[in-house]
Design goal:
It contains 18 helices and twelve strands. It is α+β, with helices and mostly antiparallel strands. It has a single domain, classed as Cytochrome p450. It has a five-stranded mixed sheet. It has a three-stranded antiparallel sheet with strand order 4-12-9. A two-stranded antiparallel ribbon has the order 6-7. A hairpin with a 2-residue loop joins strand 6 and strand 7 (387-389). The radius of gyration is 25 Å and the shape is globular.
């Protein structure tokens, strides 16, 4: 081939590359044209820096690529590298034009301003958890439902009541696991925490019902953060089928409960389902079945997933850090030693003496950040530090970036409970359960469960992981790929 032919080929290759580049620029501009052209000029000019990604999928490919790799923080790192440490960026996420926020100040303001923002969860989350659950209802409806459910979950009397049940089940679970060859530690913990939340909400449902619900919840959870593609083979498609099965099971439970209440004229032990059936608004209107079911789906899901995962990571982090484990164990031994003669089991008094263990739990919540982000939607144009969040756009509050920011937490990826010794977190820098009126209503119960488990584990057991270097997956939640496969060994004394 002569020089002329080579020159001609290079010419055409250059044209082809140019066309590809132009096509890429055009495609990357589609979302800009679609979602920014309807904004006023002043609003367009004051949008935060960022890009809207590809048509339809936006920035989701980059997000999923990072969170399916060994470096989930690569997604935000790339954005910061391109647009600077502004702390606020425009994007296109989960099917909507969005503003990503990574600063404590912005998160605090957005979470506490109910006049300017409402829940803005992705379609997948709203459809799967329920439009009439906390993720979909208005501020006034949320306030009413939260008032109804908060005390039976987080109140002092409720926590005292649940302690014995939690402790009994933790004790028997650890004993059972120690006699088994090997277990998926995370899977067993999720079963344990699901049993506890089932007791609180539905009292004594059968093992068969509990296992059926747990199975569907496992499938549903994988779809909560997925793209809402309702087509065979996609995670969301399977999750929708799981929700349908959950609704059918819960409808049957509600029917049987109403029937039992009629037969006993309401003279039965009250649990959360009874409270939901009894509640009335100021006009005497009761919750309908859809409202009750969506509330149950939300609470039963949130009430076991976070507790199970954080308990596993707390255990793993302690075992990986012998000095921390020894300090936590000595605290628990001292608490047992100082119990009044004849006292059987823990009380809230002992729980409140677990100062170091509380720091272990907080450090785990920070380091793992079970909820990477939460979602709001602007009810009106909102100005923040010279930028505008347009009405109708989603706002993604990126908790992970805050919890792993070295400005607030030196050496942020190191497990160090002692960092909390003299640390009073600045407002907006520690958000494991959110903040404002939408603060997770089960946060106290979750921490109580974790502490009771760690108390008994530290005193009598150890975990031997089969694959301590096992890779970690980050969606839908951070976990070892093998679900922490290993053995629970009883410590000989």
């Amino acid at each position: 081939m002569g020089f002329e032919e080579l020159g001609g080929m290079s010419y055409y290759v250059g044209i082809l590359l140019g066309l590809v580049l132009v096509l890429k620029l055009v495609l990357k501009s589609v979302n800009l044209w679609v979602y920014e052209r309807g904004l006023e000029k002043k609003t367009r000019e004051s949008l935060p820096p960022g890009d809207m990604g590809w048509p339809l999928v936006g920035n989701m490919w980059a997000f999923l690529k990072a969170f399916k790799s060994t470096d989930p923080d690569a997604f935000m790192s790339h954005i910061v590298h391109r647009y600077g440490p502004k702390g606020i960026y425009k994007s296109f996420m989960f099917g909507s034009p969005s503003i990503i926020v990574t600063t404590p100040e912005a998160c605090r303001k957005i979470l506490s301003d109910d006049d300017a923002f409402k829940p803005g969860w992705p379609k997948a989350t709203t459809e799967l958890i329920g439009k009439k659950s906390f993720v979909g209802i208005s501020y006034e409806e949320h306030k009413r439902l939260r008032k109804l459910t908060a005390a039976p979950v987080n109140g002092h009397e409720a926590l005292s009541t649940y302690m014995q049940y939690i402790e009994t089940n933790v004790f028997s679970a650890l004993e059972k696991w120690s006699q088994m060859d090997r277990i998926e530690f995370l899977t067993e913990l999720r079963r344990l925490t699901f049993k506890i939340i089932m007791y609180i909400f539905l009292s004594s449902e059968s093992v068969e019902v509990r296992e059926a619900l747990e199975k569907e919840y496992t499938i549903l959870n994988y779809g909560v953060r997925a793209m809402a593609i309702n087509f065979p083979g996609f995670v969301y498609y399977k999750a929708l089928k799981a929700r349908k099965n959950l609704v059918a099971i819960l409808k049957a439970i509600i029917y049987e409960r109403r029937k039992k209440r009629e037969e006993t004229q309401g003279m039965t032990k009250k649990d959360m389902l009874d409270s939901l059936l009894d509640t009335e608004d100021e006009n005497g209107n009761k919750l309908d079945d859809e409202e009750i079911i969506d509330t149950l789906i939300m609470y039963l899901n949130a009430g076991h997933e976070s507790s199970g995962h954080v308990t596993m990571w707390s255990t793993v982090f302690l075992q990986e850090n012998p000095e921390c484990l020894q300090k936590a164990k000595e605290e628990q031994e001292k608490i047992v030693k100082n119990m009044p003669p004849g006292q059987k089991g823990l009380t809230l008094k002992e729980y409140r003496q677990m100062e170091y263990l509380s720091k272990v739990i907080d450090e785990t919540l920070r380091l793992v950040t079970f909820s990477v982000m939460t979602f709001r939607e602007a009810k009106k144009d909102y100005d923040f530090n010279g930028y505008t969040i347009p009405k109708g756009w989603k706002v993604l509050l990126w908790f992970r970036s805050i919890h792993l920011n070295s400005e607030f937490y030196p050496d942020p990826k190191t497990f160090n409970p002692s960092r909390w010794d003299d640390l009073v977190p600045k407002v907006g820098t520690f958000l494991p359960f959110g903040a404002g009126s939408r603060l997770c209503p089960g946060n106290d119960l979750a921490k109580l469960e974790i502490a009771i488990f760690l108390h008994h584990f530290l005193l009598n057991y150890k975990l031997e992981r089969e694959n301590p270097e096992c890779p970690v997956m980050y969606l839908p939640h951070t976990r070892p790929i093998d679900n922490c496969l290993g053995r629970i060994r009883k410590i000989s004394k």
